[in-house]
Amino acid sequence: MFESEASEFQAAGIQVGADQSEAEERLLAEGLAPFPIQRRNQALEMARLYAVLYCFENEVRVFVRETLYEKDGVDWIDKIPAKVREHCENRQVTALKDSWLEGEKTDILGFAEFGHLAQIIIAKWEYFQVIPSQHWLKQRMDELEKVRHFIAHNRMLLPSEFQRLYMYIADWNRVVGL
User: Fold this and answer.
1) Is the CB of residue 165 less than 8 Å from the CB of residue 52?
2) Fewest CB atoms within 10 Å of the CB: 116, 121, 136, 140?
3) First-to-final CA distance of the chain
4) How far is the C-alpha of 87 from the C-alpha of 108, rounded, in Å?
């Protein structure tokens, strides 16, 4: 059976092939098995936070990109703060040279650091009036960036920090409408 035929059966609700979610769970369990149960549980908690932050950060990138494209046109990247644009361009050049590292390399905004997103929004503030204030934006983005660093460096957060992350992202989604 070809993949295209399998897709038709799956769309009709018929399971074709192995259950991938079961296989993925087994692989995860095997990969985590050597570690103590407390460490595994912490890792799974942090993985949820990573997933939420990953989705949030990339939706903010989409929001910024689409807004700038709508307002400034196809050359929107030339109209963001020069230091941010140069940083993104330099990181993109480095990524293109790292031929062993595969992944998305064409999206220039993908090379912006998390904090750059707030800088871009503030520099183009007249385009982002849906956001209550620059102070509101900076406060949330700065706090989320701190959480992002903890997650990126595999440090465990307290439950109150989990709640703050969820609250700030819910605030953003309510205000911006993601």
Assistant:
1) yes
2) 136
3) 39
4) 10
- Number of domains comprising the chain: 2
Closest C-alpha to 109, from 77, 137, 83, 140: 77
Q: Are residues 47 and 29 located together in one domain of the fold?
A: no
124 in the same domain as 50: yes
Quote the Cα angle for 173-174-178, to 5°: 35
Q: How confident is the model at residue 3 (pLDDT cuts 50, 70, 90)?
A: low
56 vs 160: CA distance, rounded Å: 19
CA distance 79 to 64: 13
Maximum average pLDDT range among 33-42, 110-119, 169-178: 110-119
Nearest to 91 by CA among 76, 80, 75, 106: 106
- Across 42-61, b (16+ Cβ under 10 Å) vs e yields ebeebeebeebbeebbeebb
The CA-CA-CA angle for residues 41, 44, 46, to 5°, reads 110
d(CA 20, CA 137): 40
Q: Which amino acid is at 46?
A: M
For residue 27, give its domain range. 1-34
Cβ-Cβ contacts under 8 Å for 125 (sequence gap 6 or more):
134
d(CA 153, CA 117): 21
| 165 CB neighbour count, 10 Å cutoff | 22
